[in-house]
Amino acid sequence: MACKLDSNQKSQWFSWIYINVNFEVQPSIGHHVLVGKDRLTYEISYGPEIKLLDHTHLKTYKLKLP
């Protein structure tokens, strides 16, 4: 799983912080059979409050069944 921190913003007038984080994940069946690739974008704010902002399906892999 890859993780990229997109932005870290803080307001000087208010005491709050929010961070947007993108995760690229590869769901699997078992330990080694990858079935696709997705990107999840979360907003994490002071409190803490965590919101899923976006879920993008990037790719589907064909399964090789025995």
Describe the structure.
This protein is mostly beta strands. The chain has a domain at 34-66. Helix content is 0%, strand content 67%. It has a four-stranded antiparallel sheet, with no helix packed on it. A two-stranded antiparallel ribbon has the order 3-4. The radius of gyration is 16 Å and the shape is elongated.
Q: Strands across the major sheet, in which order? A: 1-2-5-6
What separation lies between the terminal Cα atoms?
26 Å
Q: What percent of residues are in strands? A: over 45%
The overall pLDDT, averaged over residues, is 77
List the uncertain runs.
1-6, 8-13
Helix content: under 10%
Indicate the overall shape.
Answer: elongated
Q: Structural class of the secondary structure composition?
A: mainly beta
Question: How many strands appear in the DSSP assignment?
Answer: 6
Major sheet description: 4 strands, antiparallel
Radius of gyration: 16 Å
Oligomer: single chain
Number of helices: 0
Pfam families: DUF3888
InterPro entries: DUF3888 (IPR024984)
Organism: Niallia alba
Protein name: DUF3888 domain-containing protein
Q: Which helices and strands appear, and what pairs or packs with what?
A:
Elements: E1 2-10, E2 17-25, E3 28-29, E4 33-34, E5 36-45, E6 49-60
Pfam family, one: DUF3888
InterPro entries: DUF3888
Protein name: DUF3888 domain-containing protein
What is shown here, in short?
The chain has 66 residues and is mainly beta. It contains no helices and 6 strands.
Keywords for this structure?
mainly beta; single chain; disordered N terminus; 0% helix; two-stranded antiparallel sheet; 6 strands; elongated
